[in-house]
Amino acid sequence: MKKLVVVIAFVMAASPALAISRYNSLSMSCQAARAAIHNEGAVILRYPSKRVSGMTLFDRYIRNSRYCDANKYAEWTTVPTRDNPRCRVLNCQDIDNLDGMFTIPDNTL
Q1: Which residue, 49, 54, 83, 96, has most beta carbons within 10 Å?
Q2: CA of 19: how far to CAs of 85, 100, 104, in Å?
Q3: Residue 92, beta-bridge partner list
């Protein structure tokens, strides 16, 4: 029984479903960034901070709310890309940020 648990743990740890792609947003076009998000469901985009020299910012960007935790929803935001300093993409936001709205927006990339 212990061997079975150990084998299952190793299989789950090595599973590709746990991996998430990481991209430098400034090395891709806005269309390519949005296509990567759409094709993979969720990716991490990295880009340099405008305010702090040498600091890299990153976040997880998603196709729609199904890629968020139960207490979050997909909201539009922007990231800089090679051809667009304000490329529109979705990321997860807390439901508490809805400011009294009764329904969660159904945003999809």
Answers
A1: 83
A2: 28, 35, 28
A3: 74
Spatial distance between the Cα atoms of 93 and 76, rounded to a whole number of angstroms: 9
The structure tokens listed for 75 are 């909201």
Q: Structural domain boundaries of the chain?
A: 18-98
pLDDT tens digit at each of 109 positions of the chain = 666 555 566 555 555 556 899 999 999 999 999 999 999 999 999 999 999 999 999 999 999 999 999 899 999 999 999 999 999 999 999 987 666 555 556 677 6
pTM to 2 decimal places: 0.74
Strand partners, 91: 61, 75
